[in-house]
Amino acid sequence: MYQRLPWVCVLLIQICIIVSSSQAKTLRVFVAGNSFSNNATRYLPDLIKEGGHELIMGKAVTGGCSLERHWKALDADLSSSSDPAGKIYSGKSLRENFGTEKWDVITLQQYSLQSSKPETFEPYASQLVAFFRRERPNAEILVHQTWAYRSDAAKFGLISEGGNATDNKTMWERSRAAYHLMAKTHGLRIIPTGDAFWAVESDSNWSYHVDPDFDFTSPKKPALPQQVHSLHVGYKWDKEGKFGKDANHANVAGEYLGALVWYGMLFDENPENVKFTPPGVDHGFAAHLRLVAQQTLREIKNTNTKNRSSGPNLTSAR
Q1: Average pLDDT rounded to a whole number, residues 45-68
Q2: CATH fold of 25-197+255-310, please?
Q3: CA-CA distances (angstroms) from residue 73 to 65, 83, 123?
Q4: CA 298 and chain centroid, separation
Q5: What pLDDT, in 10s, does the model give residues 69-95?
Q6: Which of these, 146, 195, 203, lies nearest to 300 by C-alpha position?
């Protein structure tokens, strides 16, 4: 084939191959989290494949898991590897999931309900950070900032004054402050998924609005209200035929937004250049989510630079 092409074309092809190979990254990422971790990383492999990168991912994830529960399970396992109190991840311990892999990145997050109450972070965040730094001193620990619940949630995150936040804005503000405090205290960068969610939900042109025409008092299966631009699962019919709502977990659009933020953060890529769109997400909305992800990463950059320069959390992954 090369014999039929001018030598200049052959040279250009070879240069493109070399440049492409030099830009490709392989990252080993370990996630200590809960169902929100799974939401945010569901479409990450699709974006990484499109970008020509490689991801090796490990997880210590269980539903509703707080920093406190992660630490107490780890502490039990450190005391006795046979203690069932340490095996909260489908019968395995954090150390078993962590294994011997040379992780480049380790992520931590709080249970969403507790994320807006900073007192729930310590001393567990410090203990977990200390453990991971001791075990993988060359890995970068990142704080995954989770999102607030949908505006029509039955309740919002816990707050310091007692009780719960009154709305999703307050939950986002309090949660954001708590995550930023954790990141600043330990010199960690932030994956700002929660900020990206709020950027969409606080924009009246793109936010979810309750369907004014749906009969919520006497719903008829399988009818559902309009939930355009929702980032959360929202209203649904369960297997038993019961009408209900999940205003906490991300739906496909929310999972896509989360993956865009993670992808841009981990691989230093511009989410606006992503072509992949999950089935079921309107292409216009998907384009807006890509824009929001990039803007959110740009806005967090200075904070992340300051946090990282103030702590010992250096990495050889980049």
Answers
A1: 98
A2: Rossmann fold (3.40.50)
A3: 10, 9, 14
A4: 17
A5: 999 999 999 999 999 999 999 999 999
A6: 195
**Measured between alpha carbons, how far is 65 from 34 in angstroms, rounded to an integer?**
5
CB-based burial label for 236 (10 Å; 0-12, 13-18, 19+): middle
Compute the distance between CA of residue 74 and CA of residue 67 in angstroms, rounded to an integer: 11
User: Is the peptide bond between 222 and the residue preceding it cis, with omega within 30 degrees of 0?
Assistant: yes
Query: How does 126-141 read in b/e, with b if 16+ C-beta sit within 10 Å?
Result: ebbbebbbeebeebbb
The pLDDT-based confidence of 311 (bands split at 50, 70, 90) is low
Characterize the bridge pairing of strands 243-250 and 232-237: antiparallel
Please list, residue by residue across 77-96, b when 16 or more beta carbons sit within 10 angstroms of its beta carbon and e when fewer do. Answer: beeeeeeeebbbbeeebbbe
The residue count for the chain = 318
Long-range contacts of 161-170 (CB under 8 A, 24+ apart): 165/116, 168/201, 169/198, 169/202, 170/116
Q: Among residues 226, 208, 206, which one has the least CA distance to residue 216?
A: 226
How far from each other are the two terminal CA atoms of the chain, in whole angstroms?
37
Tokens standing for 256? 């896509």
Both structure tokens of 285 = 């909305």
Peptide bond before 123: cis, by omega within 30 degrees of 0?
Answer: yes
Residue type, 48: I
Give the type of residue at 125.
A
Q: By C-alpha distance, which of 248, 250, 258 is closest to 290? A: 258
- Dist CA 191 CA 76 (whole Å): 29
Beta bridge partners, 106, equal: 30, 141
Partners of 58 in beta bridges: 30
**Are the C-beta atoms of 37 and 144 separated by less than 8 Å?**
yes
**Over the stretch 96-138, which tens digit does the pLDDT of each residue have?**
999 999 999 999 999 999 999 999 999 999 999 999 999 999 9
